[in-house]
Each structure stands twice: as C-alpha cells, then as structure tokens.
C-alpha cells in the first residue's frame, strides 16, 4: 500500500495546489521564508480547519493503509506480554510503546521514503507548470502591447477579484499631456471621445497628480456640459470612478470640480419649468444630464460622512462649501404665473426628497459645527432659498417638482432649527418679503401648512404620478408635525420657537374656522404636546392675546375647551359626520386633559363643567354599547362587531378622560360628583396591572393618581371594589413570604440587610400611600375584626388590609408565627408599616381601640426574655424588640421635635442611646395598660435603675403616681368616665391629650372631665349644622382643633367653648377645623355628601398649585416618588400639626390663620415644604420620602423664621386670588365674614 502510482501523483498535484490556495493568506503574511516554514510546521495548532483539508485527509488515509496492520500487530504483541506494558498499567504507556515500535519497523521506513520521493516529484511538476504559465502570460502581454498604441493599457481587474487577478498600466506625464490636448473642446468629437475612454481606464492617482491636471479638469468639466451624451456620460464616468476609488484628499477635488460644473451649467442654460398645470419632462437632454450629475453628487454626499472624520477638517469644509455654493444659486423669476427658473435644489429634491444627505451631515458635531458656521458667515442665501420654496403665494401646490422641493426644504429647515446655532441664522432676508423672516415667522408658516387642505390633496396626485418614496406617504402635514414634534421635545427649543403668541394663534385658526377633521386631528396632537409643558400650559391659560370670534381677545384654553364641548354635544354637523368623529373629539379632549390634570389648569377650565359633559357622553355611550345587536348567523356580523368595537374604544376614551380629573385634589371631588368614580378606578386598575402610562404625553404611570384617589373615603372604597387592594396585598405576600414563580432557585436567598428588603420596598411604599389618610384607614379597617384563627395553613394568603394586620402585625399566637416562612423579616415589615400608620393619630387611635395594638406589642415584649416563666430571666434585645419598643414609645408620647425623643431603631445604637426620660415614659405607659403584671414591671424598673444609675423616686412612688393619673373603670367594652359614656377611641384620646397638657403644664389631673364635657357639647353643636344624609353623620376622627383650643385655654371649658362657637362663624373655621365643616350645610349638598373634606380639595389643591410654581423641585420629587403633597397636607392639617410642630408653633399656626385669613394655611404648608426641600430631594433618591415626611421629620420649624417665604408668594399671587377662591368654595354662611379679610 505504500507504493504510489502515476494516477496518485496527478491527484496529489491537485490536492497540493488546493491546499496551498487555502493557506495562501497565512503564507503570504510571513515576512521571510523561515517564518513561512515555521507557520507550516505549526499549522495544525493554529488552523482549526486543518483536518478538513482534502490533502490532509489523503495523507491520513495513506498512512492508515500503509501502517494499519503494523499498529494492530504491535498492539496485540504488547498486550500478550507479562503485563509490563499492559493496559492496566497505563494507557499512555501502551500508546508510547506501540508508536516507538511502529516507527522502528521496515514498513514505516519504506512509507516515508516513497512519500518523500513522490512529493518531490509533485512539487517539481507544480513549479515547472507555474513557470510555464508565467512565461506564457508575459508573451501574451507583450504581443498585446505591441498591437496597441503606446498609451493604451489593459485592466483585467474585476470588482470582486483579488490583487492576484489584476494588472495595471502606468501613464507617463507625456501621455497625460497628450490626453489633455485631445480633450480640448476644439478637437473633433471622435478624438475627444477616444481620449475620454482611455482616461477612464487610467489610474485616478496618476491623473490627479500629473502636471496637466488643471487643463484636464477644465476640459472634463466642459465635456460634462456637452449636449452629446457620449461625451458627457464618459466624463461623468471618470468622475464616478474617481469618487468611488480614491481617498478624501483626492475625491474632494473631484467633487468640487463636479459641483462647479453643475453650477456653471445652471448659470449658462437658465433652465425653467412651467408653473401652471403643464408638466416638466425630465427626459429632456439638458435636464437628464444634470439629474445624472446631481445624483452622483448626492450619492457621494450620503457616503462621505462615513470617512471624512479621519481626514483634516479643511477637506470636509471644502466639500460642504462647494455644496452650499451650488445650492445658493438663485435666479430672479421670469414672468410670474408662467414659468419658474429651474434651480439645483429642485433636482436635488427630486433625487433625495427627505434630504437624507443633510440629516447625515448634521448628525455629528464634527460636521455640524462647520455647516452652521458656513451658513452663518457666507451662505445665508441657502436658507433664504429654502424659505422661498415655502412661499405659499406661488402656485405650485399641484406640481410634483415644487412639492418635492417643498418637502426637501422642510426637512433641511427642520434639522436646522433644532440646534442653537441653526436658530441663530434667523432672521433672514429673502426675496419678495419686505421684512426679514424671523424664527417665529417660520414656525407660523409651518403651522399654516398644517391646515391647508389643498396640500393634503396633493399627496394622492403625487403618489399616483411619481413613486418618489415607494410606499412611504410623504404628507406635508405629517412632515410639519415631525418638525413641531422635535421642537416640543426640548423645552429650550420650544420656548424660543414654538411658545410664541403668533404661533399659537396660527395653530388655533383651524379650530376657530372649523377646518376639516384630518387637519384638526393634527392640530390637536401638537396642542396636546404644547400643553404638556409648563411654558406651553401657561401660554394657554394666562396669555389673553389670541383673536377669537368677533375679533375679541381671549385665552387659548377657552377656545379649546369650548370647541371640545361643542364636539361632545355634536353641535358641529360637518365634523360629527366625518369618518373619525370620535378620534377627533378624543384628540381635543386630550388637549383639555393636559390642562385640567394640573391644579392651575383646572382652575381655568372648571367653570365650563367639562367633567359633566364627559360624564354625560360616557353614560350615553355606555347605554348605546349595550344596545348593539348581537351578531346572528346570516347577518352582517362584520359591521355590528366593528360598531361595538368603536363604541368600546370611545367609552374607554371617555373613562380615561374622566379618570384624569383625579390627578388633582379638586378634580377628584369633581370626579366623585359625576358618579363615575368606581368605573374610572376599575379602568385605572386594568391599566395599572399592565404597567401602562397615563397617556402618550405622560412619562409616569398611575402611581400618583392612585395615591391621590386613596386619600379620600370614596376613592379608597372605589379602589377596594375594583380589586386593586386585593391585588396589592397578594403581590406583597408573594414577594414577602413566597418565591417568585418565574425565578428558578439555584442558591439560597440571601439574608436581607435592610429592615425592609429591596424586593419588598415597592409594595411597602404602595401600602404607605394607600393608608396615608385616616379616612382610608377608617374605610378599610373600621368595624373590621381580625381573624385570629386557631390554624393557618402555609398556602393561606391574606387578601385584605385586616388580614395583613392579622398576619404581620398582631402576632399574638404561636400559630401565626409558625405560619410564616420568614417570621422575623415579615414581622419587621409589619412593625415598620404600623410605625408609619401610627404617625397619623386618628389611624393609631382606631387601631388601638379595635385591635389593642399596644397590648399585643407589650405581651410580645414580655415574652422576649430568656426565661418567660421566671422574673429573673435576661431581656433579649433583637431587631423585633427594638422595633416594638420604638412603636410603643412613639404612640405613648405626644409632642413636637424638641418635646419628645424617640428611641433608636438600630441594634448598634441601643446600648449608647438609652435615655432616662424615654424609659420612664415607656414605663408609665406600661403601668397604665398592664397593671396586673407587677412582677414584670418591678423587674423592668430594676433594669432601668441599673442602666441609668438612679431615678427620681422609688418604684412604689412611680406606681402610685401612674395609678392616680389613670381613672379607668372597665365596663364591658365601654368606658365610663365621670358619668359620661364614651367610646373606647374617645377615651384613648383623652389619655394622650391630658398627658400632653400635663407635660406642657397647661392641664391638671382632673382636666380630663372638662375635656370630655367639652367634646360632648361640641359634638352636639356641630351635628346640628350637618346635612341629613343616609351615611353616618359623625365625624370619622378626633376633633384635634377643639383639643388644641382646650389646651390653649388651660383646660377652661367655658372659655374653650366660647372661643369655638365664635370661631365657627369665621371663614377660617372651614379650613382649620375639619370636624366643624364635615357634611356642613354651608356647602352644596353634593359636596357635603361627597365625604371629601375641604382641607383636601381646597387647601391641599392650592398648596400643590403654589408648590409647582414656587418649589418645582419638591413638586417633581413628589411626582417621581408616587406620593402627593396633598396627602401630607391632609395629614398635618387634620391633626393640627400635633407631633410635627412644637406647641408654640401650633399656637402660632392657629393664631396666624384666624387673624390673617385662611389663605395663610396654604402659605404655611408651602413654606414647610420649601424648608424641607434639601431633605425631600435627598430622600426621594433613596426612595424613602413618604417615611421621612411621616416618621423621621425631626427638624425644628419656626413660623417666624419662614415668614419671609410668605411675603413673595402673597405678592405674586395676590390674596384676592387665593382667598377669593377659598371663599367661593363655601356657602352663603361665610360670605359676610370674607370682606374683613379682603381689606
């Protein structure tokens, strides 16, 4: 098998040749023969395809045939020996031995000898054949050169070939000089044509570097303008070859020469085209020739941006300048109305309708800076010409050429105005305009194009006759929209270009003139984007300089809302009968929505009653959708299905529009009055679960709106009925206690470092937002007992807020503890949530009266010792005991930041932060609530003494003091207090108020009796001034203002009652005394029955409005966090800032509002937010804004120090505006008081 025959040699020759071709790249890259040899020796290591080569496969098969039997025989011999080389002793040893014996065999030596001789023969044959081929090629080349003239050469290269298949000829200077002479315009056509053919085959580098290039270039440019296509096309072919195969330093000169030639042709021929109905024939030789040349330029313009950054800036500048020089060519028009002069921009627009070349040039700063600099210094006429192409006084709307020029000019101008230096080009002086065209004038022209219906009809004609852009419909209105969209996206650009009175007036002209529906839909889109910005919204609401009907000046907002109402009422037959009445109406509703979802916008639009019109339209549509016939077999199912689908879309649009009233406190009241709040919240929940944005103009989801709705009783009821709260609780539980179904467990879950893990933080904040208001807590927890089951399965999940409290907070049994997978983390979560809830005093008192929260926490603390059965056990201090201790101290101590100190919540700080006052206060509270546990308290007192050294008084003295200060008699769930039967929640109020009064040295021990009597009289007095409704008449919470007045009067019941009765007749009482105005007869019945307090829909509404204007960063921080300033205002004002301000500041607050007027309540809230601005911004970044404002606000706030913040706000907005608006929300009972405050 080792012998090779003749046919084997032939096969080896082809295989070796193929192998060498495959590795030619690797060998050719070697710098020397030695390196090439080294590459071949290591080819198997470096080439992954080595074993796939046919030559290698052949050699492998040859070796196997020659040595296969030898290898098998040696292997058998070794395995039969005594085991020295047995397989068991090592497989590698066996292989090594077989290999060595095979190499020593005679067969191996014979195979190597035969293979070597054969390969030598094959290589020699290939070498001889290669030399013969080379000699043959050289002979053929010499023969061909001899037959041709001295200046001809052959180029055999192809576009796809490599350098091995190419041959080049080199031109001498004399030859190029002869070509330049033959290209002279005086020579015969045939001579010039032959010279051009030869020049096209010459290397571009030789031509451009020759001494006669200047004359060649001049003659080539002359040839380009020749009417004979043979000459012009060959000259253009040379330019095309040069532009495609030369570096930029060469192509720039070719391009500039081409641009000058084209400009010269336009200047000499002075071509024109008809401006009437006649068409221009692009097959005319002179136009066809220019189109080809401009197309070559345009192709180069699109590609040059890919590589000109690698060359000096001067090269790029020459290309740009030559382009602008060509486009700046303009000729005075001939006879108006008959013909127009054809300009380069017309043909460029035909070839590149959307100005792709200019968009690419303006994309990078490297080229954009040069473009804008040249336009500003030398070529403003280019922009002037583009503006001339937008002159609507000319008759070109039906002409394809003018249309393309218009689109091209629009794209270029639109790209210019989005850059600052591009806008600096304006104003520009153009022909036929007396005054220069400013930037505002340009936007007005663009706006005017949008409602020119003839331009829309042009599209159909153009797309039929010219397929310039394929299937892409290039509508002028759409292009203008794109330009205006780009301006709207950047506040700086829009303020300079778009937010101008002439522009808005031009945009609103179609609305006043009742233009067609297609145009109005585009107008509405732009108006909505403008209204979505602060500057645009202010322009709509407060700029009274827009011309309306009968030449009256009015606000843009009034025009828009009136037009929208007419659309809703179907008072415009021409528009209502169009193909898209609902989409047009929905577009203008969206514009109104951008206004009424802000506080200032709602103030302007509220008198029009748009919410009532939307509600009426929704009810009508809902009724009609129910009446749509069900498709039946044989009937027209398609039309009925489409009709039903359109009805449902329109119904959702109306619901969505109604829902956006809930973005502001006052808007939520209007939404509640429409009776559609439940349907709107259900619709919001369906979109919220899909994580959809509020609208195309909004960047945030529904977080703020959910928080706004949850602040009121009807809103939280709607959330509960929609399933939102259930979904929220289930999502929390799945994150807190269960692993996500879509997460594959590959390693144990890490132990959370933070008290609330990051995965649960979002759900925690949602719950805080939901339960921030005491009204929502009363609606969700009032009269709702805890389950307290005897058994909880591991798969049982809570579905409501009471269930969540039962499983996470009220851990009063081992069954609940064992039902949790992560007891410590889950209970910590519950305690943190309880801590936030208890910051609202009304919420805490409800929890305490219904669930005995403090008792449960104390029982847990009592069991948190090493030996619960003995009083000698050590106290266990862990994260849960620290959290419980913090909550217990917080709920037992009342006072402002400087009047109470709360214990730490971190274990690291406990040992260094024990405070005598805090521990004694906590000890007092323990005695008052758990009297029988005397041994435990003795033990606690011993621990306290050992921690703080000594205290004033002994344990018996403290016990007697606490027992004397608590006159409590248990009586079957009710409390008897000196003859008055009071609910549990009322009695708990008295405990805390009396304790705070004693601390302030304002009350005595027996003052609780007078407080109870005062509350009874106030309750009777206020109930007589409430409307008779089917709902509960009593105020859902404690009357904190009455308690504050009681403390101010040092516990004197007669003075307190007299002051409260006198205060009830003042306008101020409607806002600082929530219990007095609850369901008051001084409000319209629908407002009184709404269940939404005036302090929310009036005071908090104005706080949000002023906050957006005066402290915009704080307003944005609230929006980003999904929280609302109105919720915090509601929290602070209902409980009279108790626990947030010191007693002195609370008194200042009440006196300021009574003396100065209720509007100072608004100014004070704004001043507090401004005072807290640094902390608010910082906490927003760490996602703890809600917790900070409710729990950790420990800064001292001084009303006198912040009074400087009030004066600028009052001067700017005026007391008449704010105070007058507050007065207008109340009934006639307060009107006679208002005049005193308006003076």
Automatic annotation (TrEMBL):
Domain BROMI middle region per the UniProt entry, residue ranges:
174-384, 393-819
What keyword terms does UniProt attach to this protein? Cell projection, Cilium, Cytoplasm, Developmental protein
What Pfam families does the database record attribute to this sequence? BROMI, BROMI_C, BROMI_N
Where is the major localization of this protein? other
Biological process according to GO: non-motile cilium assembly
Indicate the segments forming the BROMI C-terminal Rab TBC-like domain, all copies. Answer: 837-911, 995-1192
List cellular component terms (GO).
cilium; cytoplasm
Record's keyword annotation contains Cytoplasm: yes
Q: What does the function comment of this entry state?
A: Required for high-level Shh responses in the developing neural tube. Together with CDK20, controls the structure of the primary cilium by coordinating assembly of the ciliary membrane and axoneme, allowing GLI2 to be properly activated in response to Shh signaling.
Please report the name of this protein according to its UniProt entry: Protein broad-minded
